[in-house]
Predict the 3D structure of the following.
Amino acid sequence: MNVLAFDIETIPDLATGRKIYDLEGLTDKDAAQAMFSKRREQTGDSDFLRHHLHHVVAIAAVLRTDDAVRVWSLGDPDSSEAELVRRFFDGIERYTPILVSWNGSGFDLPVLHYRALFHGIAAPRYWDTGENDRDFKWNNYLSRFHSRHTDLMDVLAGYQPRATAPLDEVAQLIGLPGKQGRHGAEVWDRYLAGKIGEIRDYCETDALNTYLIYLRFELMRGNLDESGWKRESDLIRKSLHETNKPHLNAFLNAWK
């Protein structure tokens, strides 16, 4: 069974924000600040935009197939949002993986739904609930309680919102590096500074933390034994070493 752990990074969807809030004529920075301000008016404190007002700038993946594991960001630094989203859903068409996320049900996938809708991207395998493949009636990507998409934050909290925990803290709980001083709230500022490479690197380490927590989850529920856990961990270490990228080497060095 193929497993795909993933994470996305987003910035404000300025084009839609300008239409909805009549922000034509403002710079990107000022338009985003206006969108954040509108959101604070709605919530009273948080400026985190609603799902349909996000624009995807990075999608990172950890793909485990029968013979290998790979960590990478989809597309290139200058790839369009449409290409990134299309590549994500094309991967599902090709591999039919178990999707693994951290808050993917609450954020990543709804955002990807809206962006696929916007760009007119077809993803029949992802949206199948049994019409084309009978097996998908009982285990599909859309049901909260099906394992074809495993939202670890949701599952580990027993589907109780008050019991959820941040990815960074759970990663550190089990001896993983976590976010290593970087946070998603910095993505917009990094994007404005032209640091898309840093955003993609950060996204990859989030996907990597998520995948490694999933391996521990598999150990906990008996799908891996101790030797299997060690084998899978060693495979990841080997892959990171061979990839030899600075941010992955830093992750590897911090992984106890």
About this structure: The mean pLDDT is 96. The first strand starts at residue 3 and ends at 12. The chain has one domain: 3-254. The beta strands are 3-12, 54-64, 69-73, 98-101, 149-151.
